């Protein structure tokens, strides 16, 4: 595979008088077509790093580069935890929003929108406004809006964190199927090791602030992959291995539990 995203010695400092170093010395390569999950304690800079890849934040030091295949302003699309869709636009209008700036013609736009409305189970809600949708349906709109522009890189910032456990599991499985159909480069921020192992090709572990990369794990399950892997001994062993490294970072992070207070069976990173 060819290199798609290159991150070299990236640092991020917020403020001047009371400066906070969010990231320090981050190096990461993501290959074309690879699904990489970022995990780490709250406040370690995962979302900051994701926004740098999206060109929404700029690093204080270092560089972030994406190898593009097409002449577009920036080859990414992003899905946020809080959906990020427009309440005054219908589902159909939200999904179509990014197509005109990318120069997609009307007929092609209609075709793409119809395809993703159908793929995400939204066809019957095309004229509905987001305020009349459940959280799960709003996140489906957000995913459809990202996928319809056919991004070279899909960035997802804890997209299922606000959903209940059953709906979260359902959307994880739908995303797994969608990625295996499209095989785009994905960088996915999550607090859930279960989610990361199910979805990812690699799991990149970040330290407590200032965020650095302290672990990089290859997920050993072949593609296409099904949710049944959750029940395997290999799945549990990998989850345990990653958690063994991450546990100390969670305790060290602001608001982390004191040593000995955290349940060793916990796998949802605080």
Automatic annotation (TrEMBL):
One of its GO terms (molecular function) is ATP binding. Residues 5-233 form the ABC transporter domain. It comes from the Bacteria. Keywords: ATP-binding, Nucleotide-binding, Transport. It holds the Pfam family ABC_tran. The keyword Transport applies. This is ABC transporter ATP-binding protein.
């Amino acid at each position: 595979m060819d290199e798609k995203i290159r991150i070299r010695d990236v640092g991020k400092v917020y403020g001047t008088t009371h400066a906070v170093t969010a990231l320090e010395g981050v190096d990461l390569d993501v290959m074309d077509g690879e699904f990489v999950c970022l995990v780490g304690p709250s406040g370690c800079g995962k979302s900051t790093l994701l926004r740098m890849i999206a060109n929404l934040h700029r690093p204080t030091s270092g560089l972030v580069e994406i190898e593009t295949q097409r002449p577009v302003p920036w080859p990414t699309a992003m899905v946020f935890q809080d959906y990020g869709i427009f309440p005054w636009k219908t589902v159909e209008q939200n999904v179509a929003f990014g197509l005109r700036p990318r120069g997609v013609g009307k007929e092609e736009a209609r075709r793409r929108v119809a395809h993703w409305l159908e793929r995400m189970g939204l066809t019957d809600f095309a004229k509905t406004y987001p305020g009349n949708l459940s959280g799960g349906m709003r996140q489906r709109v957000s995913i459809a809006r990202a996928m319809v522009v056919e991004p070279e890189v899909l960035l997802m910032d804890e997209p299922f964190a606000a959903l209940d456990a059953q709906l979260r599991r359902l959307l994880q499985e739908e995303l797994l199927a969608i990625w295996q159909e499209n095989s785009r480069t994905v960088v996915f921020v999550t607090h859930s090791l279960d989610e990361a192992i199910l979805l990812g090709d690699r799991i990149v572990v970040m330290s407590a602030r200032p965020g650095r990369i302290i672990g990089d794990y290859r997920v050993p399950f072949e593609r296409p992959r099904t949710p049944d892997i959750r029940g395997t001994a290999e799945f549990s062993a990998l989850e345990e291995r990653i958690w063994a490294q991450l546990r100390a970072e969670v305790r060290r992070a602001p608001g982390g539990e004191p040593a000995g207070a955290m349940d060793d069976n916990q796998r949802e990173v605080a």
